[in-house]
Amino acid sequence: MVFLARTEEFIREVDRYSARNYNPLPVVIERGEGVWVWDVEGNKYLDMLSAYSALNQGHRHPKIISALMEQAGKCTLTSRAFHNETMGPFLKTLCELAGYGKALPMNTGAEAVETAIKAARKWGLVRKGVPENQGEIIVCENNFHGRTVTIISFSSEEQYRYGFGPYTPGFVLVPYGDLEALEKAITPHTVAVLAEPIQGEGGVVVPPQGYLAKMRELATEHNLLMMLDEIQTGLGRTGRLFAYEHEGAKPDVLILGKALGGGVYPVSAVLASEEVLGVFNPGDHGSTFGGNPLGAAVAQAALEVILEEDLPGRAEQLGNYFLEGLKALNSPYVREIRGRGLLIGVEIKTEYGSARPFCQRLMAEGLLCKETHEQTIRFAPPLVISKEEIDWALERIQKVLGA
Ligand SMILES: *Cc1c(COP(=O)(O)O)cnc(C)c1O
């Protein structure tokens, strides 16, 4: 891969004007279609990150783009001060699909997590009878739920927190996957437990078999809300519509984002029963863009694509195929390969340094991947990927990770 003038020029401009809160690979993308993207030099790459699973339906899915265009030609924003004609149908589709009574639409994942936290705290007060300002939420070490002050307040990652205090109280950290610690942390003031079914940003950490099912039991037994953040694992990624289905552990509160916007527009949502979301009265919570007609039309199409193209089924089948292919490389650099469906982490042995140089070499071979938690390369292509495209990827991964 030669470094060419246009790429350098774009990157220089970003370096000059952008805050340095990211450290992207040196590729400037101009166009995307399906699983492929092209940079400003005309090089073609397979997108193995899918914008952290926001592109499950692939780049510019025709059905989603046409929903966007059609709605853009009618009305884009009303605010919730007025009704619009697409939010209702979208929420009906979402609630029926996921099996919940109600949904609250927001924009980003972090906002949906904040919404769930507010719902749980108020549910604790008005339904469970926990004294005001005393509600506790149990969360897991190595979590990732977003970047707001409240959310980073319960991060166990020092870099996410440093300098951003004072922190929001009311959260209790327990080790991920540790049911004994979870049970011990429950007090009469516990209103909820919040977890990811698989920790994506944490390095694709899959909890022990039975973890979610037992969490479900504990939540019911102790009258607290089980809240699952399926922003990354949801909507087909792990081979089921929702990752909790692997254990039949349906949460009281389901948090969605990323692929809900079809890779086009930020749409997130919190789903729960009337008993839970009914704690919100007019004025308690909101968002100017939440539930806007453009986002709702896009999300409706994004959900239809997931169903019509059986993306969960594809993720399961092709994920297994990809995982087997990666294992068959017998890479000397790799400590562990783990994951579910098309959410796969390949952990590089520490003696070979961080995963970043491997991502750079994969980029030179035409694969865009990003390291997570220093040592792990995440392979999470759009779920519309074909078997031939996985073979194409494996050939190139072989060159970088092979013996
Ligand atoms: C990406 C992500 C979030 C945050 O979503 P944003 O849209 O970036 O705010 C929260 N939780 C999980 C599990 C995520 O992967």
Spell out the CATH superfamily of the largest domain: Type I PLP-dependent aspartate aminotransferase-like (Major domain)
Q: What average pLDDT do the residues reach?
A: 97
Biggest β-sheet, characterized? 7 strands, mixed
Residues in β-strands, percent = 15-25%
- Would you give the CATH topology of the largest domain? Aspartate Aminotransferase, domain 2
Poorly predicted residue ranges? none
CATH first level of the largest domain: Alpha Beta
SS-derived structural category: alpha/beta
Ligand list = pyridoxal-5'-phosphate
What is the rounded Rg? 21 Å
Number of strands: 15
The number of distinct helices, counting runs of at least 4 residues, comes to 14
Ends apart, CA distance between termini = 22 Å
Written as H for each helix and E for each strand, in order along the chain, the element string is HEEEHHHEHEHHEHEHEEEHHHEEHEEEH
Q: Helical percent range?
A: 25-40%
